[in-house]
Amino acid sequence: MPEKPKESFEEIARPWDADQGRVNTALTVAKSIREQVALHEHMRVLEFGCGTGLVAMALRDRVGEIVAVDSSPEMLNQLMEKIAKQQVNDIHPILLDWEEQALPAGPFDLIYTSMTLHHIESHLHLLGIFYDRLASGGSLCIADLFTEQGDFHSDPELIPHFGFDPKLLQEELNKMGFRNLNYRHIHTIRKERENGQVKEFPMFLLCGQKE
Question: What are all long-range contacts of 61-68, with beta carbons under 8 Å and residues at least 24 apart?
């Protein structure tokens, strides 16, 4: 697997939330999850690749607790600062490299991941672990890019997937045992290139349930 660009994540973690585009993306993902999943105050939730916790902070008032996992210490430091400042007691950050350590034990009522799966080379293996960690009837939500040409990241050589075809991803999830699968376009990220051209990168939300 290509080495994960952890150093670059450490460098951009502190100013991450200052980018209003990133904030808007996270809020849109949270809103879309709320529209797709019947959240309730007793839900135990796992977020994989939580970053600075933008999505988790937007969902916490609708669920019981969120276990927030990320492999970047600095990203988690930003989340822990928010937790301390706002006296949050229902988000539990965990520093974890899933290839070296087991994910937190289930069962979870909801597992979601936002703009993270395209960084995971063996993504189908990870999705299988998600299935195992879900409670019967639990939901999985994946927010990520539609297939693109490798222009989204400045270091494409480190990125194993240039987005996904959600139809193919849906087929793989169906083989694993997920049901009630559906996806939709939820957002478009706009990035200005070095030549001044603005390029659009559409995002989807794919959701399903464990039998």
Answer: 62/34, 63/39, 63/90, 63/109, 63/110, 64/40, 64/90, 65/90, 65/91, 65/92, 66/90, 66/91, 66/92, 67/92, 67/94, 67/104, 67/108, 68/92, 68/93, 68/94
**Domains of the chain with CATH codes:** 6-210 (3.40.50.150)
Residue partners of 113: CB distance under 8 A and separation at least 6: 47, 48, 49, 141, 142, 143, 144
Q: What is the pLDDT at residue 182?
A: 98
Compute the distance between CA of residue 101 and CA of residue 3 in angstroms, rounded to an integer: 17
What average pLDDT is seen over the chain? 91
pTM: 0.90
